[in-house]
Write the C-alpha cells for this entry.
Amino acid sequence: MRVPGDKSVSHRAALLAALCERGNGTRVSNFSTSADCASTLRCLEQLGVRVERDGATVHVGGAGLHLPRPPAGALDCGNSGTTMRLLAGVLAGQNFPATLAGDESLCSRPMRRVIEPLELMGARVVSREGRAPLRVEGRRPLAPIEYVSPVASAQVKSCVLLAGLNADGRTAFVERHGATRDHTERLLRWFGVEVEVGDESAESVAGDQKSQARSVSLVGGQRLRARDVEVPGDISSAAFFIVAAALLAGSELRVEGVGLNPTRTQMLDVLRSLGADVRVENASECSNEPVGEIVVRGTGALAPRQRGASILRGELIAGLIDELPILAVAGTQVEGGLEIRDAGELRVKETDRVRAVCENLRAMGARVEEYADGLFVEGRAGLRGARVRSFGDHRIAMAFAVAALVAEGETEIEGAECVAVSFPEFFDLLESVVER
Ligand code: S3P
C-alpha cells in the first residue's frame, strides 16, 4: 500500500513555497490530502498567495518574505495546530496585523509557547489568556533571539525559525528535551537557505542522564529559491497500518514511498524492541527527506527482547509524540505491558490523549493506569469490542480502529469521521488491506 503525503512536510512545503522570491512558483506533488493542510492553503490564499490545486498536486506562487496583503477576515486554521503556530511565525514579520482563529479544540490549546518567543522578537500577539484567537501584530524587521524552548515542539521551533527569516541577524532555537522533527530545517535548505545545526551534549538537570542540546539557527533576510517538492508518504498515517499488521498474526504488509526521516521513525525501533517483525527496504531520498519501504510481518502478541514492563520515556518521547496513542493500543498485546512517561504534551494535543486512550482502553476491557504524564497498560489483554469515542481527535479514532481489529466482537467509534483531519482515506484503505 501507499499512504498520502506527509502532513508535516506538506504544511511546510506550502508555507516555504509562498515565501520564495516573487514570481517563481513551486509545484508540490503528493501533497497531503488532510483537512489540516487544506487549512494552510486557504490561509495562504487569504494572504494573497497564488495557490492552485489539482488533486495531490499543488502549485504555490512565490510572494517573497513580505506577504502581499493583509487578510480580509480572520485566518481560519480549523483543527490545525501546525497551521496556527507556523503561520504565527510568518505573520510576526509582516507590516500588517492578522488574526488566527480555529475550531473549539484548537482554541483550547496552549499558544504561549509561540507568543513568548515572538514577543521577545518584537511582535505583539494578543490572545485570550494564551489561547486562540491570536491577533498577530507584526514588526519589520524582527529582533533576532536565541531561544531555549521550555517544551519539545517542532511547531514552536518552526515558528521561531520562520520568524527568524524576517529578523535582523541570527536567530537560534535550542532544543533540550529531545530532538523534534526537522522537516523545516530540511526544506529551508532545499529552498536555498543556510541553516546551521549545532550539537552539544550537556548534563541534564538530574545529572544522571546525558542529554543532547541541539541548536538550530539561521540569519534573517535570506532569499528562498522556488524549487519543486515531492512529499514522502506520511509515516504517522502508516503507523496505524504497521501496528495493525504487527498485531494480527499471519499478516504481511508493505508500505511504499513512505518518509523515513530519523526524527519520525522511532516508532519502528520501539516496535522492533517490543518483538515485532518490522523492516526497512529500498531506502532512498526525495526532496531532502529519506524515503523507503516498510515491511511488516504479523506475529500476534508481542514478546519484548527485555523482560518486564517496557517503558517509553525521556528524550524518546519527542520522536514518538504522534504515535503514542497507537503504541498504547499495541501495549495491550505486549508481554509485561507498556508504560509511557514524560508525555504530558499528550494532554494538550487535539484532545487530552492520555485521558482518551485510558477511557477507551478501559471500555474495551484493558487494565490501564493513568498518570499525569502518561499511562501504564497491562499487557496480553484480550480486548473486547465496545462503544468508544474519538473525542473529535483523528489519531484517537484511528488508534481505536486498530484496537477494534484486535478485539473480540464489534466496536463502534463515535465521531470517526474526524479521521479526515489527517487521513480522509483511512477507512477505505483499511478495508482494502484487511482480509476477513
Ligand atoms: C507537528 C509537530 C508535533 C506533532 C504534530 C505535527 C509539526 O507537534 O504532534 O502532529 O508538523 O510540526 P508539537 O511540535 O507541538 O509537539
Remarks:
- The chain is about 30% helix and 25% strand.
- Residues 204-208 have pLDDT under 50 and may be disordered.
